[in-house]
Design goal:
Length: 207
């Protein structure tokens, strides 16, 4: 979730999304300082804990740990999944306290990337772009539902579909094997005729 660096707006957006039924929130404010980011993350974690939701922090393992978040989400330019997974899994062997259920997610754009991320220790995969969307144009043409289906068949980890997801096509992704969907515009661009809670309800029904 991003709010252009406005901390109050970002914190409120996270609280609102969780209150409306969002299961996971990925905080992806790349331009914030660690101090500012951990404050927003801690606020989100407190809200998520009460609602049974999860907060994941983009890239920043340190911020995720400091805030008590559920885990970290890693992209192509992040720390390698394998390095983070080894750190997580080896801490108990050294007698150190390991984060409980610390999840590692990975953004993947091919079947091969998804398989490698799972092999390296990722707990879940975000795959896309499935459909055309301006925010994912740098990753190339849409992958399509059939490629999503192939990824879901080839990995055991939960796969979340991303890229051009709408209320109308979310069900198509789930029928292809996705465990759920990830989106930005879908949750931000809600018109006056439909609030976020209603949109989430409609999408769950469609899935």
């Amino acid at each position: 979730m991003s709010a252009g660096g406005d901390l109050a707006t970002l914190a409120e957006a996270i609280r609102h999304a969780i209150a409306c039924g969002v299961d996971w929130v990925q905080i992806r404010e790349k331009d914030l300082s660690g101090r500012a980011l951990v404050g927003v993350a801690r606020d989100g974690v407190a809200t998520a804990r009460e609602a049974g939701a999860r907060i994941l922090v983009n890239d920043r393992v340190d911020v995720s740990l400091a805030a008590g978040a559920a885990g970290v989400h890693l992209g192509r330019e992040s720390l390698p999944v394998g390095d983070v997974a080894r750190w997580r899994d080896e801490r108990p062997k050294r007698g150190e306290t390991a984060p409980r259920d610390f999840w590692i997610g990975a953004s993947c754009h091919s079947v091969e990337e998804a398989e490698a991320a799972e092999r390296d220790g990722a707990n879940y995969i975000i795959f896309g772009p499935v459909f055309e969307t301006p925010s994912k144009m740098k990753y190339g043409a849409p992958q399509g539902v059939e490629k999503l289906r192939t990824v879901c068949e080839r990995v055991k980890s939960p796969v979340l579909a991303i890229g051009g997801i709408s209320v109308e096509n979310a069900g198509e992704c789930v029928r292809a094997g996705a465990a759920g969907i990830a989106a930005i515009r879908l949750f931000q661009e809600v018109g006056e005729a439909e609030n976020l809670r209603e949109r989430i309800r409609r999408m769950r029904e469609a899935m």
